[in-house]
Amino acid sequence: MHAVYACRLPNHRFPMSALHKIDLQLNGHAQALELEPEMPLLWALRDELGLTATKYGCGVGACGACTVQLDGQAARSCQLPLGSLAGRTVTTLEGLAGDALMQRLQAAWLAEQVPQCGYCQVGLLMAAHALLRQQPRPSEAQAEAALGNLCRCGSYPRVRRALARLWA
Amino acid sequence: MKRRGLLISAGLLAGAGLLVGVGLRAPDPRSRVGAPRRQGLALNAWVTIDPQGQVTVAVPRAEMGQGIHTALAQLVAEELDADWNQLRVQNAPLEALYANTALVLNVLPLQPDDDGLIARLARGGGQRASLALGLQLTGGSSSVRDAWEPLRLAGAAARHLLLQAAAARWGVGLEQLRTAQGFVIHGAQQLAYGELSAAAVAFSPPTALPLKARADWKLIGHSPPRLDLPAKVTGQARYGIDVRLPGLRHAALRQAPSFGGTVVGFDIEAIRQRRGVFDAFVLDPGTAVVVADNWWRAEAALKAHPPRFHAGPRGSRHTAEMRATLARALDQHDGTGFRDDGDAPDVLARAERVIRAEYELPFLAHAALEPLNCTAQVSQGQVKIWCPTQVASLARWQAARVAGVAQDAVSVETTYLGGGFGRRLETDVVEQAVAIALRCDGAPVRLLWSREEDFTHDVYRPMAMARFEAALDGQGRPLAWLNRVAGPAVGAEFVQRQLPAPLKGWMPDLPDKAQIEGAYELPYAIPNLRVRQLRIPLGVPVGNWRSVGHSVNAFFTECFLDELALAAGQDPLHYREALLQARPRHLAVLRLAAHQAGWGQALPPGRARGVALHESFGSICAQVAEVAIGQGRPRVLRIVCALDAGTLVHPDSVRAQMEGSILFGLTAALQGEITIEQGAVQQRNFPQQPLLTLAETPQIDVHLIESDAPPGGVGEPGTPPTAPAVANALSTLIGRRIRRLPIRLD
Asked: What is the pTM of this model?
């Protein structure tokens, strides 16, 4: 249930590499991409595929705004180069629109009026969803470890209350 | 003799120009309602109702999480008797009627309770100037304060038109009709608003529009679900970074690391060979830009071929030198006055014992989660902007200037903001985006700053240094209080950035309320009170950071006040209470926080409480922090907050703003620090400047005072008291005074 961090992308060398064909599973369907293997999944999702729910916050894997699920585990997509994703399964929030657990999470989020600006909330919901799939009633420590996402607006007290609703 | 020193800023008089002559009372809110328009079935400037009954409220303010789209809609919907489920909001056009007349009140150098003639003229004049200039701005915790009267009037006016239309259709008198939940009702008959709006636009509202009694409110004072949250939990909410347009290009940039540095080398030809790159160029002397078909490719190009910079004249600046500059200024200069009651220097000169202390605070970054961005398109003499901006009016003005077109050739669409906190009051990213768009052959282009650029090219909460001297009377109460605060003039520097280049150097050195606010409006009964400011530029861009000068001066004043209590051997709460006997509202807020926090009840060993009280943006907030120390580091266990913000339009949003602004202030108190070496900001991303996480969040208890007073500000007043409450508590625990932030216990 911990976020999966791929190897950090080397910032100092970005030669122009060849495009690679990369096939992966995205939101329940096969997705063929032909892009640079070092392009982070985040930018393929946002700028190539138009899936903008997943957000850019820091680019170094520190804030969690870019959280997706990779093979069912929370992962920070700014740290996932496309070249590492062949044959893998990626889910974004758009792909969980019909998911019963995500709908319960979203309902709890609305009941507690969790978001303020809301920019970090997609990442938080994705991390919370991955956590609850693994651990339906997480301890405080498990929740804190899984939800390291940064929120500048200070929605954390309401995140706690929203999660508590899910097993009330 | 008590004498109120009052300063009228000459800049305000000169700049507004309209303050001379008649009509200096506050503008009539009815003048801001607007007339009905057949087109679009607009019942007035604020309300449109379509035939299906959907009610659209025009909102001229940016939604950045403070819930004002919802609050403003509530004001209209309440008087309109609309069905909340039929409500939606839409950005208002950029027209003078939608200007923010309350934000200007924050910059006036007045005492909050000053109701004298000059104060009223200044406020009225400032409000009229804001309307005349059409300043559509969001900030200063002013949106609800500004909207309170005109939007309720707009709702009432719209309702009246619907009543007139129904009365005409049924052939009955108005007095036989009532409204509820989107219907006009006559006995057993009813007509939905959607069936009436087309006819209603032909009528005119009366000049006298009574508003509902408080007891009849169904929306105001309640907390209907926020209108923007459903989209925010499904990922459909559109922030500036999410704008998608056909043919959209993406721009990334690098700005000189040291302020005032210049680009001296940039491998434009090599970058242009890269896949997906449209262009690379030096945008202005300090900025290198790449435009590509995908933002990552633009950033990758800059990483592969980083521009080379010359450090420039400020390239050797560093934090230690800036602190020394402030200290030297305080050594050598008295400063200019902001308050001078009695004769503090005389009392201090004759006092047996003078208590002295020096305090300081660092620069702070905004670090909103959505990095700065702006999308612009310049085509056929028209400029279009899509931007998460707090200043649509200024964005239009600057865009027109950069593109060389008239303002009415510019359209600005304000998206949701992924946090603002005052950073998006700046138009730097707008000016850059338009300048880039001019080079994109009519294609739209989104400029997105990397997180590193966002951190290192912020407009920072200014560094500040303060010196205090005080003498106590026989009962231990402050007899004289002398406070001098040195730091950059943040208000003036903000204004200066809006001026066109030829005028930038013209700004006179005027008293700067934004730098000293929170220091001179102390509510405590101190007979000899002198507050002076030293405006010291430090060569680092400074701007409005949530609660502005209050974020600095609440820490300074509330911590020093605790030192006086300690010197007097008195409990810090009781010490404050004794000085607030003439201030019942402040006293009530303070006592509520203290009572709810269990002040005075025994704590387990190793724990302590600290208190702070501060008024800002028209509201009064008190906080009690309960702290411990674990493994040599501060642990904040609980913060109890009491707030008097007058009438609370959406109490749940007010709670959320308190929780959020406390965490904002707490992050700063424990971890916030921007340092400069070799002219450049050292903190480039979250690992170097961490935010508090969920795991580190204390219990926060918010207690709201019910009040009939008009609404006060809510977005910012919760931040100033947090750092001093925590510092006061920790000071008690460690037995020495904490006089600087971030808190270090070693």
From this structure: 0.95
